[in-house]
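Aim 2, interim progress: modelling of the zinc ion-bound target.
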Amino acid sequence: MITLFVYNQADSRVEIHPSDGELPYVNNSRLTAQQLTGKELTAVAWTDKRLLEAYDALCGLWGGPIRVNHAFCRFRSGMHKAQSAHYAGLAMDLGRGMNISDLNRLRVLAVKSGDWSYVEPAHIAPTWVHVELQPGKKRYSYPSLSAGDSSAYCFVLQDALKAMGYDLAFTGSIDAATLRALKKFQHEFNIPVSGRADRITWRALFQTR
Ligand SMILES: [Zn+2]
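Predicted structure of the complex, ligand included:
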């Protein structure tokens, strides 16, 4: 059983979807939380409504369902480089098992759709198609977060802090408990107690993994 949180930018709210049903915003295929998490064993996962919509649009261009290898993985599973968009549920790996020409067609469509800020070239990922929404100004750099912010990145911050033993709940926003934990972390790790998840803080969080 996976609880999937979907951040909806339109109203800055987090929608909660249980794993059994099909996910919303996907009409040209069917998608479940299990597919989004792939082989990752986890009771919680998160993504963004924009990702589901972008996937749906891509299936529309493709002309049918596109196999999802996985989209989401937990920060501590360490499958990806630091600050991967997969930890925020903002990237998908698609089409494993397709032949080369289908994979190429899928990459071209993903670029053409204009929905994805990055489509990994074939020479980096030859046997699947990695697509992602912009994590920050640079690839692999998370945005700075402060009190009141909400986004899929807030879940990554909460996941990292929870893993270190700080007491908070997954809410997808920098609420009072998250802010308290963040400041405690900054204090304990000798970084400026700014109450912001800034570049220094993200780096420190990833180094303590
Ligand atoms: Zn990927």
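Residues 13 and 30 are 23 Å apart (CA to CA). Residues 86, 91, 93, 130 surround zinc ion (CB under 6 Å).
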